[in-house]
Amino acid sequence: MFSLIIYRLPRKISIFKPSSFCEICHQHLKFYHKIPIISYILLKGKCPYCSHKFGFNHLLLELLTPLFFLIIYINNPIGLNFYKYLILTSAFIIIFFLDWENRIIPNLITLPLIVIGLLFSFWSKINIIQLFLGILIGGGILTIVGLVYQCITKQQAIGGGDIKLSIAISIFIGWQLTLFTLFFGSVLGIVYYIFSHKKSETIPYGAFLSLSAYISIIYGKEILNLWIKYLSPS
Ligand SMILES: [Zn+2]
Fold first, then answer.
1. 20 to 30 A from 109, CA-CA: which of 91, 99, 128, 168?
2. 146-160 tens-digit pLDDT
3. 74-128 pLDDT per residue, tens
4. How many CB atoms lie within 10 A of CB 189?
5. What are residue 28's phi and psi, to 5 degrees?
6. If you measure from the C-alpha of residue 27 to the centroid of ligand 1, how many angstroms do you get, rounded to a whole number?
7. Mean per-residue pLDDT for 21-26?
8. Domain extent listing, the chain
9. 85 burial via Cβ count (<10 Å: 0-12, 13-18, 19+)
């Protein structure tokens, strides 16, 4: 399902129909061609009709998705937080691959994510001031980080999609963890830029934001404890 969304969204193909097909020979794939991981191994990563290679990212996606979900399950008992983080992780996986491959973060993912995040916040009766502080930090800091990036790299690294994603993240995980996410995502972005062969290439910052926000979900307690220990004013 995720690979279908990742392939079709940038190509403006409906995600509901037609059913999965090979991008080269356009033959429709049978259900037994689409069993995650198993089909990839049995077909040696190739289309069963024309032998076109599906690419390693396809397998990586099929391996990482259950692993990331399992880690969420281990860390959160079934309940509000579990479902909240499952939705957020699903969005992160899609955004990571979309931004990495095509440098896009579609509104079709970020805007519903903001709405779902707000619903969860109201459901769990979150403090409104904390919520607004998060949105302010999520949106505001990224705009400043974007301008700094632009000064250093002489190119636009942060777009509207990144800012909407950052706002969604802040609604889901709170302002303290958003600060960590923005900081760690920027570190990853800088490392990518340093090791990138094509310096003119845009940095997939949304992919790094998604990855660091996922880390924030998993190590949230530890990060907040460090925050209280070293950075809290009191
Ligand atoms: Zn084919």
1. 128
2. 788 788 877 776 888
3. 999 898 999 999 999 999 999 999 999 889 999 999 999 999 999 999 998 888 9
4. 22
5. -75, 140
6. 6
7. 88
8. 1-54, 56-231
9. buried
Task: Give the Å distance between the CA of 102 and the centre of ligand 1.
Answer: 22
Angle at 191 between CA 188 and CA 197, to 5 degrees: 125
pTM for the structure as a whole: 0.87
Exposed e or buried b per residue across 110-146, where buried means at least 16 C-beta atoms within 10 angstroms of its C-beta: beebbebbbebbeeeeeeeeebebbbebbeebbeebb
46 phi and psi, to 5 degrees? -120, 155
Q: So what's the pLDDT on residue 233?
A: 64
How many Å lie between the centroid of ligand 1 and the Cα of residue 53? 9
- Give me ligand 1 centre to Cα 44, in Å: 13
In the reported structure, the alpha carbon of residue 30 is separated from the centroid of ligand 1 by a whole-number distance in angstroms of 12
| Closest to 207 measured CA to CA, from 223, 176, 186, 222 | 186
Q: How far apart are the first and last CA of the chain?
A: 48
